[in-house]
Design goal:
Layout lengths: L1 E6 L4 H10 L6 E6 L4 H7 L5 E4 L4 E4 L4 H8 L1
Parallel strand pairs: 1-2
Antiparallel strand pairs: 1-3, 3-4
């Protein structure tokens, strides 16, 4: 499954969220640095880290844990 992971450099919560996300096998994680696009930054600046599913346009904002991610991916 492909997911997008909205993040930025130097974000400790993003590192924590990525560690949780990486415990799930079979994911194709596209990392998106919100600081590289002004429009993306405006949308996600106060919500990161965010996991997004392009297949159904759903998003999971921080805070989340492994149970939340599992439910989100199902």
């Amino acid at each position: 499954m492909k997911v997008r992971y909205y993040t930025k450099v130097g974000c400790p919560l993003c590192d924590e969220g990525l560690a949780i996300l990486c415990t799930f096998s079979g994911l194709d994680i596209e990392h998106i640095d919100i600081e590289e696009d002004e429009q993306v930054f405006g949308k996600y600046a106060w919500k990161i880290p965010v996991i997004a599913r392009p297949d159904n346009a759903s998003e999971l904002d921080w805070p989340f844990d492994s149970k939340d991610v599992k439910a989100f991916l199902e």
